[in-house]
């Protein structure tokens, strides 16, 4: 085990994986509170359109995908607020459009190659020093913002109308949270891919909520659970030659399923 820690790309994978696990676990608390489980799915798939544009223009796909995801995320929020329709509907519309748009661009792209599928399915072992620096910078900014406005953001998530009448600028926190989720989704693409990134934003808090109801305990246990899964997932996938990102999500889902099953057995026993 010690020799693994001496391999540079494994060191990057562990550092990047742990930072991302902490960031997404905190975000998962608000996604669960807001019942936005579909939004991370929509944004992660919408990123595909931005990645395709990046490949077509020969510009950094992660950067273009990030900008595209933020625009799509804000559009989801704007259409939902001003169109008086639920987020799930606007997500479904933009998600389908972005995927179709991405496939169309990709089919005409002279720069198209198999690297695009790396973004679809992810590869944590390709995390670079630059990726880690960007991830650390965004994590510090996001968690700092959430720490400062934690009570107000949580208030908006539970009851936006009451929060508004209490004098809280709900629109500011609404769009700020969507922007953070959008950028975090794009950064997580390299770890687990476009298709699987949403699991790391949904499962940690959902899993913790099976044991606790208080948000502080949910937050703490979400981070603990997510970091444990990522680290164990990287080690096991290395020894058994599994795709790391895919195996991490498999572990998330497997353990969550086992917990639900055990709870049902004890409930009926």
Automatic annotation (TrEMBL):
GO biological process: response to zinc ion; transmembrane transport
Highest rank taxon of the organism: Bacteria
Membrane-topology annotation of the record: Multi-pass membrane protein
Membrane spanning stretches: 12-31, 38-57, 63-79, 91-110, 130-150, 162-185, 191-212, 219-240, 246-266
Single GO cellular component term: ATP-binding cassette (ABC) transporter complex
Coiled-coil residues: none
Protein name (database record): Zinc transport system permease protein
Organism from which the protein derives: Hydrogenothermus marinus
